[in-house]
Amino acid sequence: MIRTKRAYEPPVPEDGARVLVDRLWPRGLAREDARIDWWAKELAPSDKLRRWFGHAPPRYREFVERYQRELDGNGSAQRLKELAEERRVTLLYAALDERHNNARALLEILGLSRPAP
Question: DSSP assignment, residue 83?
């Protein structure tokens, strides 16, 4: 099982493996407080795509499509799926928008959730 959560929310045992899927470390978050098991920068959207998206909900659908193209052939996506078969995984992100962010998009791309509106 994979779920998403803001990186700023406190860690809880139910999180399982905590995977940060942002290319940049969340501002103001101390590494020791974050308890990150895997900082999967390689699963984050490119800086160019992240800046284009700008967390604008009207661009979300196209963002998911472009993000999926970036991830084609990315072995870390398979590694994430395998980890999720072994234990619970929580994808962490820093964005304020809980419905339109790269962690939710990643779940959609991996076929692990339905598209966000």
Answer: H
CA dihedral (31, 36, 41, 42) in degrees, to 10, reads: 160
Is the four-CA dihedral 97, 114, 48, 58 of positive or negative sign?
A: negative
Q: Are the beta carbons of 10 and 96 closer than 8 angstroms?
A: no
Beta bridge pairs of residue 39? 20
The position carrying tokens 């339109």 is 100
pLDDT digits (tens, 9 = 90+) for 24-71: 999 999 999 999 999 999 999 999 999 999 999 999 999 999 999 999
Looking at the DSSP assignment, which residues form a beta bridge with residue 3?
90
pTM comes to: 0.91
